[in-house]
Protein backbone atom coordinates (compact mmCIF):
# COMPACT_ATOMS: atom_id res chain seq x y z
CA UNK A 1 0.00 0.00 0.00
CA UNK A 2 1.57 3.31 -1.01
CA UNK A 3 1.30 6.43 1.08
CA UNK A 4 -1.04 8.95 -0.55
CA UNK A 5 -1.24 11.41 2.32
CA UNK A 6 -3.22 12.03 5.46
CA UNK A 7 -7.00 12.09 4.85
CA UNK A 8 -8.52 15.57 5.08
CA UNK A 9 -9.66 16.43 8.59
CA UNK A 10 -7.82 13.56 10.24
CA UNK A 11 -5.11 15.77 11.74
CA UNK A 12 -5.40 19.43 12.65
CA UNK A 13 -2.59 21.73 11.57
CA UNK A 14 0.10 22.57 14.08
CA UNK A 15 0.64 26.32 14.11
CA UNK A 16 2.81 26.82 17.18
CA UNK A 17 1.96 29.01 20.17
CA UNK A 18 -0.22 30.40 21.52
CA UNK A 19 -2.05 27.22 22.34
CA UNK A 20 -5.79 27.48 22.72
CA UNK A 21 -7.79 25.17 24.95
CA UNK A 22 -8.00 21.77 23.32
CA UNK A 23 -5.03 22.28 20.99
CA UNK A 24 -2.27 19.72 21.11
CA UNK A 25 1.26 20.52 22.23
CA UNK A 26 3.97 19.89 19.66
CA UNK A 27 4.93 16.58 21.25
CA UNK A 28 1.30 15.40 21.36
CA UNK A 29 0.78 16.56 17.77
CA UNK A 30 3.91 14.73 16.57
CA UNK A 31 2.76 11.58 18.34
CA UNK A 32 -0.63 11.86 16.59
CA UNK A 33 1.14 12.46 13.25
CA UNK A 34 3.31 9.35 13.76
CA UNK A 35 0.26 7.26 14.69
CA UNK A 36 -1.48 8.27 11.48
CA UNK A 37 1.44 7.86 9.04
CA UNK A 38 3.40 4.91 10.50
CA UNK A 39 1.07 2.14 9.20
CA UNK A 40 1.93 3.26 5.65
CA UNK A 41 5.73 3.05 6.15
CA UNK A 42 6.39 6.25 4.20
CA UNK A 43 9.89 7.29 3.21
CA UNK A 44 11.56 10.10 5.13
CA UNK A 45 10.84 12.51 2.26
CA UNK A 46 7.15 11.53 2.16
CA UNK A 47 6.89 12.05 5.91
CA UNK A 48 8.64 15.42 5.61
CA UNK A 49 6.25 16.51 2.84
CA UNK A 50 3.17 15.47 4.82
CA UNK A 51 4.49 17.10 7.97
CA UNK A 52 5.01 20.41 6.16
CA UNK A 53 1.53 20.19 4.62
CA UNK A 54 0.09 19.96 8.13
CA UNK A 55 1.89 22.97 9.53
CA UNK A 56 0.60 26.52 9.63
CA UNK A 57 1.44 29.88 11.14
CA UNK A 58 4.76 30.29 12.94
CA UNK A 59 5.55 26.57 12.63
CA UNK A 60 5.32 26.64 8.84
CA UNK A 61 7.32 29.89 8.70
CA UNK A 62 10.07 28.26 10.75
CA UNK A 63 10.31 25.36 8.30
CA UNK A 64 10.31 27.74 5.32
CA UNK A 65 13.49 29.29 6.74
CA UNK A 66 15.28 25.95 6.50
CA UNK A 67 17.38 24.99 3.49
CA UNK A 68 15.88 22.72 0.83
CA UNK A 69 17.93 19.70 1.94
CA UNK A 70 16.78 20.10 5.55
CA UNK A 71 13.13 20.56 4.45
CA UNK A 72 13.30 17.11 2.80
CA UNK A 73 14.68 15.50 5.97
CA UNK A 74 11.95 14.52 8.43
CA UNK A 75 14.35 14.31 11.41
CA UNK A 76 15.74 17.79 10.65
CA UNK A 77 12.24 19.30 10.53
CA UNK A 78 11.22 17.62 13.78
CA UNK A 79 14.43 18.76 15.49
CA UNK A 80 13.83 22.36 14.35
CA UNK A 81 10.20 22.29 15.52
CA UNK A 82 11.19 20.81 18.88
CA UNK A 83 13.80 23.53 19.31
CA UNK A 84 11.25 26.27 18.66
CA UNK A 85 7.98 24.86 19.99
CA UNK A 86 8.74 21.69 21.93
CA UNK A 87 8.82 21.07 25.61
CA UNK A 88 12.05 22.32 26.99
CA UNK A 89 12.65 19.21 29.05
CA UNK A 90 15.53 17.12 27.83
CA UNK A 91 15.50 13.36 27.54
CA UNK A 92 18.00 13.31 30.41
CA UNK A 93 15.79 15.34 32.78
CA UNK A 94 12.73 13.25 31.88
CA UNK A 95 14.83 10.10 32.34
CA UNK A 96 15.72 11.29 35.85
CA UNK A 97 12.08 12.08 36.63
CA UNK A 98 11.04 8.64 35.38
CA UNK A 99 13.61 6.75 37.44
CA UNK A 100 12.93 8.84 40.56
CA UNK A 101 9.15 8.41 40.31
CA UNK A 102 7.66 6.43 43.18
CA UNK A 103 4.08 5.67 44.09
CA UNK A 104 2.65 8.58 46.07
CA UNK A 105 0.65 8.33 49.27
CA UNK A 106 -3.01 7.65 48.36
CA UNK A 107 -2.04 6.87 44.73
CA UNK A 108 -3.40 3.57 43.43
CA UNK A 109 -1.14 1.16 41.55
CA UNK A 110 -3.11 1.80 38.36
CA UNK A 111 -2.66 5.59 38.71
CA UNK A 112 1.05 5.06 39.39
CA UNK A 113 1.29 2.84 36.31
CA UNK A 114 -0.39 5.48 34.12
CA UNK A 115 1.91 8.20 35.50
CA UNK A 116 4.96 6.09 34.59
CA UNK A 117 3.59 5.48 31.09
CA UNK A 118 2.97 9.21 30.58
CA UNK A 119 6.50 10.07 31.72
CA UNK A 120 8.01 7.43 29.45
CA UNK A 121 5.97 8.67 26.48
CA UNK A 122 7.20 12.21 27.13
CA UNK A 123 10.75 10.88 27.19
CA UNK A 124 10.22 9.12 23.83
CA UNK A 125 8.75 12.27 22.29
CA UNK A 126 11.60 14.44 23.61
CA UNK A 127 14.18 12.26 21.88
CA UNK A 128 15.82 14.39 19.19
CA UNK A 129 16.11 11.65 16.54
CA UNK A 130 14.12 8.68 15.28
CA UNK A 131 17.04 6.43 16.22
CA UNK A 132 16.89 7.51 19.88
CA UNK A 133 13.10 7.25 19.89
CA UNK A 134 13.36 3.73 18.47
CA UNK A 135 15.89 2.75 21.13
CA UNK A 136 13.62 4.07 23.89
CA UNK A 137 10.63 2.20 22.43
CA UNK A 138 12.70 -0.98 22.36
CA UNK A 139 13.44 -0.58 26.09
CA UNK A 140 9.93 0.59 27.03
CA UNK A 141 8.37 -2.57 28.50
CA UNK A 142 11.38 -3.56 30.57
CA UNK A 143 11.92 -0.03 31.88
CA UNK A 144 8.27 0.41 32.81
CA UNK A 145 8.13 -2.97 34.52
CA UNK A 146 11.34 -2.35 36.45
CA UNK A 147 10.35 1.14 37.64
CA UNK A 148 6.85 -0.05 38.54
CA UNK A 149 8.32 -2.75 40.79
CA UNK A 150 10.96 -0.45 42.32
CA UNK A 151 8.58 2.45 42.82
CA UNK A 152 5.70 0.59 44.48
CA UNK A 153 5.11 2.08 47.92
CA UNK A 154 4.49 -1.06 49.98
CA UNK A 155 7.28 -3.58 50.57
CA UNK A 156 4.97 -6.59 50.28
CA UNK A 157 3.67 -5.30 46.93
CA UNK A 158 7.24 -4.88 45.62
CA UNK A 159 8.09 -8.43 46.73
CA UNK A 160 5.00 -9.87 45.08
CA UNK A 161 5.64 -7.91 41.87
CA UNK A 162 9.25 -9.18 41.79
CA UNK A 163 8.02 -12.75 42.30
CA UNK A 164 5.53 -12.38 39.44
CA UNK A 165 8.15 -10.70 37.23
CA UNK A 166 10.64 -13.53 37.81
CA UNK A 167 7.99 -16.15 37.02
CA UNK A 168 7.36 -14.67 33.56
UniProtKB/TrEMBL annotation:
Name listed for the protein in its UniProt record: Paraneoplastic antigen Ma-like C-terminal domain-containing protein
Annotated Paraneoplastic antigen Ma-like C-terminal domain residues: 20-126
Origin: domain of life: Eukaryota
PANTHER family named in the record: GAG PROTEIN, PARANEOPLASTIC ANTIGEN
Organism phylogeny: Eukaryota, Metazoa, Echinodermata, Eleutherozoa, Echinozoa
InterPro entries: PNMA, PNMA_C
Amino acid sequence: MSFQGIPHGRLQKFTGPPYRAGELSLLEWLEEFETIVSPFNPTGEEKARQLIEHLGGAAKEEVKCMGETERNDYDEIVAALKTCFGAHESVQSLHGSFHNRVQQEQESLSDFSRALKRLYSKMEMAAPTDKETSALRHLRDGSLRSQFVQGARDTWVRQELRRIDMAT
